[in-house]
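Board notes (copied after class):
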Amino acid sequence: GASSAAADVLGAHQLVERRAAQCPDAVAVRYGEQALSYAEFNRSANRLARLLLARGIAPGSRVALCLPRSIDLIVATLATLKAGCAYVPVDPAYPPARRAYLLADADPACVLTTQTLAADNAEVFAKRALLCLDDAALPAELAGFDADDIAPARVDLSPDSDAYVIYTSGSTGEPKGVMVEHANLTNLVGWHCESFPLQPGERTAAMAGVAFDACTWEIWPALSMGATLALPPQAAAGDPLQLLQWWQAQELHSGFLVTALAEIVLSDSALSNESAAQPGRALRSLLTGGDRLSRLPERELPFQLINNYGPTETTVVATSGRLRGDDAALHIG
C-alpha cells in the first residue's frame, strides 16, 4: 500500500549511512590536505546532530548554514538531516541585505557558522541562536555524544518532510524559498546514481555555489555512492578561472560545471591544452546546466557531455540528455 511504499523511501542521509557501513575506510570528502573517511564523516555528523537536538532544535525546524565551502559545511548538511531538520544554505558571499532577507524569511531555529562570520554578521544574526563550528570548546562538547548512535535518523521524518530550502535568484521580485521534500531529493539521487554511477573511491567535485541548487546535486549522489567529493580551495571562491584550473588538475570521474565554465573546457583550445586534458583521462561524464550551451564542440569528446535543465522547484533537474557533435540542434535535455 501507499504507507508501506512511503516507508521504503530513504532520506539521502540514510543512504549515506548505508555507504558508511559498506565502505567505512573510503574517503568521503577531501579539501586540500584534509580528508574524512565515510566512517569519520558519519560519526562527526551523528555527534553534531545529537548536539542540535540537545540544544533544543526540534525535528522539523529549519537550520541555516552560513559557511564557506569546507568539510564542516558537508558535515553540517548531513547532521541537519540526521536531526530531522531542513537545511537552508546561506552563501557567506551574499550581500548583507540578501543574507538578512533570507534569515528573516526562513526564520531558522539555529544558524551554523564560523566565529569570523558571526562577528562579521553581528547585525544580520542578531537574536538568533548560533553554533560556531570552529568554537574551541565545541570538540569537548561533541565528544560527550555517542558517535555511533544514529537515533537522529529515526526522528519523526516522512517522505514529504522538508530536506532543504533553497532561495531563488529573486530576478522576478523577492527571492522565494523553495522547500524540497525528502522524497524529491531521494528521487534525484536515485536517478543520478543509475545514470552516472561512481564506484567507492572514484572522485567528483563540488563546484557550484554553496547556495545554488546544483550544489545539492553534487553532494548527495556522490556520498550515496561511496565516491570521494573533492572541494576546491577557498581561494578560488569567486574566481571562475582559478576554480577551473583547480578542476582541470583533478583526476575526476564525473563532474558538474555551470554552462559558462563547461564552454571553456569544451573549447578547442582547452581540449588541446595539456593541463586541461588531464580530467579527460578519467572523466566519463561532464554534466552541465544553468544555461543553454551556445555551441557543440567540433571534435569527438573523450567523455559524455550531458546537458541538464530544471528550475529549483523541480529538484534541480527536470530534463537531461546527452549531446553529441552530430546533433542537429542544441537542446536542454
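Comment from the instructor: The radius of gyration is 20 Å. The chain has a mean pLDDT of 88.
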